[in-house]
Write a structure and sequence with these properties.
Layout: E1 17-18, H1 19-33, H2 36-45, H3 72-81, E2 86-87, H4 89-93, H5 97-101, H6 105-110, E3 113-114, E4 118-121, E5 126-129, H7 132-144, E6 151-155, H8 161-174, H9 188-198, H10 209-212, E7 215-219, H11 223-226, H12 228-239, E8 244-247, H13 253-256, E9 257-259, H14 264-269, E10 273-274, E11 278-280, H15 287-303, H16 314-320, E12 321-322, H17 324-333, H18 336-343, H19 347-359, E13 363-367, H20 369-372, H21 377-390, E14 400-403, H22 410-415, H23 424-434, H24 446-454, E15 460-464, H25 468-471, H26 475-482, E16 487-492, E17 505-510, E18 519-520, E19 523-524, E20 527-530, E21 535-539, H27 553-564, H28 572-577, H29 579-589, H30 596-599, E22 606-607, E23 624-625, E24 644-649, E25 654-655, E26 658-659, E27 675-678, H31 680-685, E28 693-698, E29 707-715, E30 722-726, E31 751-757
Parallel strand pairs: 1-9, 2-3, 6-15, 7-8, 7-13, 8-11, 12-23, 13-14, 15-16, 16-17, 24-30, 27-29
Antiparallel strand pairs: 4-5, 4-17, 9-10, 18-19, 20-21, 21-22, 24-31, 25-26, 28-29, 28-31
Helix pairs in contact: 1-3, 7-27, 8-27, 9-21, 15-18, 15-19, 15-21, 24-26
The structure holds ligand MGD (2 copies) and molybdenum atom.
């Protein structure tokens, strides 16, 4: 038995999630980043019809007209952007880039908001102020000197629809479909997998469906931290008596018990609601096996003699789907012993899930990165679709699939054309609308872009937000490769490590954030975003910009385009004067945005068409497809019992590569991020004690082993054989070429590793 000794910063957290702890943390975020009066007003206007869209997550808001919904991590995201701290040209006079490299990711961003356009000066190793016009000219010259297919146009998911649309038009008129995108590291398995299954690459539920569901099966996501406003919804469902079944290798506190900070009675009595009715600690990478087990048990229930009502919706299957017989044959041929071994769950447990599912007339399955970030992530998503299809859980109230998108507009960015594999009809409408011929040849996704940079095939990187080098796997290869680029341009709000990877020429262009006024020639502007449930709504900043030198993302893209494309067919300056004009063009290229400018002005916005919610299947066959997952392993299997599966996760105090602080309250970690969460029996089996320093090495069948040294092993409630570490610290263990072949999503959530005592 591993002995529980005291380890600095590791404590048991016994309270429910939410509650007073959340209020306290919010107050701290406001105190540290903002002037208090202003902060309160700003926060109050978040996600209200005349306010700005919360940059925290893509969970929708009820009606968008409801009263302010409190959320701790939304407050952190807003105060982090609306901070009183500044990174000005004087700041860089005091710090060379080599100095800054030694700062932590937290320290870099905590410096504050970028205030001026900057260019890197090799002689002094410093960023220096540059005028917008000079910066654009340099970018234009740089781009014109390169072949378009050697340039990468990265998008992080905060960009508005208007910015993302202009960006793709700029890159395509320039001549490339190289669109690496944060979605490629995130829900690409959804975007690729679901169109094959149901003819739609998005979720099918709306918030109202949660009021009508009988059962929720929540797989591989941590809403208490990453989608806190979802906790209000889950809390209501739990109160209504809806069973919530969770599949997650870690016992996440918010999925166990939650005290709603909006609920005065719970707050004053220290009460809470139990969230999960059953919690199954599936092995990391064991979801496909678990889902197959549930489907196999459902088949058995359906076939059981003496049942008067069928468990499987055969009428729906006959009318709407194809491939059920093949799926059933595969399930029949799959042995329970293999399912149990691969999932780490017992047959009895999976049968209990099937039986709860059989009793529910309307089931919702929400899921997150625990499902998508695997080398068979696409197949994984399709198993969820199969399970829902077996009982006709599409196109009826209270039922459907609910991928939890990451960035607040990552879904919208894809809708308005950020894709490396453009559809022919979009290209045709771009040509009709703007009068230039966009390229047809497919471009690079995020992994392919970095591979091209490493191989020296790509020479220029333009980033609309994000922190690409840190978000991607394999920093040992990608960091030096980034420094070999001819030109790197970052449109950003805050300084991060990717900005310190200097090529021949490096430029930072500071932009307005969501919280700030955006005033153009025609007056104050709003932008639009699409949430996880395909609701498009407006966002209008409320605070004065942190610096007079900031420009909006649309204005910056137009500036780059004008400087790069002197013969452009696009009236860039005119479009940016009034964003209604951009929206008219979006509507011209994407007819789903019919009457865009009228409908966006209706409080709450509008929902984009989702054919699968009407049982219209936009697949080649016109039917929904059952897609068989061959085998059981989402990741390469290994017979070596000493090999553990590493998953990489977010702490409660971070937004992707943005680290707000060093605590992970609900998991009982305070003031440090260098930990490896392990089951106590795995610690014992490795003869390692809680608190020991360990090294971790990848154990993939091919490729050079990658190693991280000096992490602290801690005993945690996690499935046996599975271990967890924080992202991005653990990205050095994830190989860039270790990804889902269908979607290109890196297998961040399942790396085979060995651990050993720290050398
Ligand atoms: N505050 C805050 N909000 C955010 C973000 C943030 O960093 N901070 N990031 C945003 C973005 S871009 C995204 S994509 C989302 C991410 O939201 P999530 O999908 O919730 O993100 P992760 O923290 O990566 O963790 C997922 C959960 O998956 C579990 N898990 C790990 N491996 C497996 C597995 O193999 N199977 C199963 N079933 N579960 C597994 C982990 O235990 C963890 O509970 O959140 C968005 N919202
Ligand atoms: N190991 C591991 N790696 C992962 C993941 C994982 O679970 N495990 N998750 C992956 C996922 S899901 C994602 S989405 C990616 C995230 O990858 P990215 O989207 O590239 O990263 P972020 O950390 O969200 O980007 C933060 C930066 O965005 C800039 N920024 C913030 N707001 C704005 C704005 O309004 N405009 C502009 N222009 N810039 C802004 C700031 O400069 C800030 O430093 O990481 C992926 N990497
Ligand atoms: Mo994401």
């Amino acid at each position: 038995m591993a002995q529980q000794r005291a380890v600095p910063g590791i404590k048991k957290y016994t309270a429910p999630a939410g509650g007073w702890g959340a209020l306290k943390a919010t107050a701290k975020a406001i105190r540290e980043q903002m002037e208090t009066g202003e902060a309160a007003v700003t926060l109050f206007r978040t996600n209200k019809p005349d306010g700005f869209d919360c940059p925290g997550c893509a969970w929708p808001d009820k009606e968008h007209t409801s009263t302010f919904q409190f959320c701790e991590n939304g407050a952190k995201a807003v105060t982090w952007e609306a901070t009183k701290k500044r990174v000005s040209p004087e700041f860089f006079q005091g710090h060379t880039v080599s100095d800054l490299w030694n700062w932590t990711d937290y320290e870099l961003e905590n410096g504050g908001r970028l205030t001026h356009p900057l260019v890197y000066d090799h002689a002094s190793d410093r960023y220096q102020a540059i005028s917008w016009e000079a910066a654009f000219q340099r970018i234009g010259e740089g781009l014109r000197a390169h072949h378009p297919n050697t340039v990468e146009f990265y998008t992080s998911g905060r960009a508005s629809n208007e910015a993302a649309f202009l960006y793709q038009i700029f890159a395509r008129e320039y001549g490339t479909n190289n669109f690496p995108d944060c979605s490629n590291m995130c829900h690409e398995a959804t975007s690729v997998g679901l169109p094959q299954s149901i003819g739609l690459g998005k979720g099918t539920v709306s918030l109202d469906d949660f009021d009508h569901c009988d059962l929720i099966i929540s797989i591989g996501h941590n809403p208490g931290t990453n989608h806190p406003r979802m906790m209000g919804t889950l809390h209501e469902c739990a109160k209504r008596g809806v069973p919530i079944i969770v599949f997650n290798p870690m016992r996440e506190r918010a999925l166990e018990r939650f005290a709603d900070p909006q609920n005065p009675i719970e707050m004053s009595t220290f009460g809470y609601e139990n969230i999960a009715s059953s919690y199954y600690q599936v092995k990391v990478g064991g979801d496909a096996a678990a889902l197959k087990g549930v489907m196999k048990a459902l088949l058995a229930l359906d076939r059981a003699p003496g049942r008067n009502a069928p468990v499987i919706d055969h009428a729906f299957i006959a009318e709407h789907t194809r491939g059920f017989e093949t799926l059933a044959a595969d399930l029949d041929a799959t042995e329970w012993a293999d399912i149990e071994a691969a999932s780490g769950l017992s047959r009895t447990a999976l049968e209990a899930v099937a039986s709860a599912y059989a009793q529910s007339n309307a089931t919702i399955i929400p899921y997150g990165m625990g499902v998508t970030q695997h080398s068979r992530g696409t197949d994984n998503v399709q198993q969820i679709a199969n399970l829902l299809l077996m009982r006709g859980n599409f196109g009826k109230a209270g039922a459907g699939i609910c991928p939890l998108r990451g960035h607040s507009n990552v879904q919208g960015d894809r809708t308005v054309g950020i894709t490396e594999k453009p559809a022919a009809d979009m290209l045709q409408r771009i040509e009709e609308t703007f009068g230039f011929k966009p390229p047809v040849e497919h471009g690079h996704d995020a992994v392919a872009a970095m591979q091209a940079i490493i191989a020296g095939r790509s020479k220029v990187l333009i980033c609309l937000g994000g922190n690409l080098a840190v978000a991607l796997p394999d920093p040992e290869q990608s960091f030096p490769a980034m420094c070999g680029l001819d030109l790197v341009v970052h449109v950003a709000t805050k300084l991060n490590r990717s900005h310190l990877l200097i090529g021949k020429d490096a430029i930072i262009l500071p932009c307005l954030g969501r919280t700030e006024h955006d005033i153009q020639a025609a007056g104050p502007q709003m932008v639009t975003v699409e949430d996880s449930m395909s609701m498009v709504h407006s966002s209008r900043g409320k605070l004065p910009p942190v610096s007079a030198h900031l420009r909006s993302e649309p204005a910056i893209i137009a500036g780059m385009a004008i400087a790069t494309l002197p013969q452009s067919k696009v009236a860039w300056a005119e479009l940016v004067e009034d964003y209604d004009r951009i929206r008219d063009k979006i509507e011209a290229v994407f007819p789903d945005f019919r009457d865009f400018n009228q409908r966006i002005r209706v409080p709450g916005g509008f929902r984009l068409p989702l054919p699968a919610t009407e049982r219209v299947w936009k697949t080649p066959s016109g039917k929904a497809e059952f897609i068989v997952f061959k085998g059981l392993n989402e990741d390469p299997a290994t017979a070596d019992g000493a090999v553990l599966r590493l998953t990489t996760i977010r702490s409660h105090d971070q937004y992707n590569t943005t680290i707000y602080g060093l605590d992970d309250r609900y998991r009982g970690v305070f003031g440090r991020r260098d930990v490896i969460f392990m089951h106590k029996d795995d610690l014992a089996a490795h003869n390692i004690q809680h608190g020991d320093a360990i090294d971790i090495e990848t154990a993939l069948p091919s490729g050079t082993p990658r190693r991280l040294a000096g992490f602290i092993a801690i005993a945690h409630n996690i499935a046996r054989g599975s271990i967890a570490a924080y992202y991005p610290e653990a990205n050095g263990l994830v190989p860039l070429d270790y990804h889902d072949p269908q979607s290109g999503t890196p297998s961040y959530k399942s790396v085979p590793v060995r651990i050993m005592r720290h050398a």
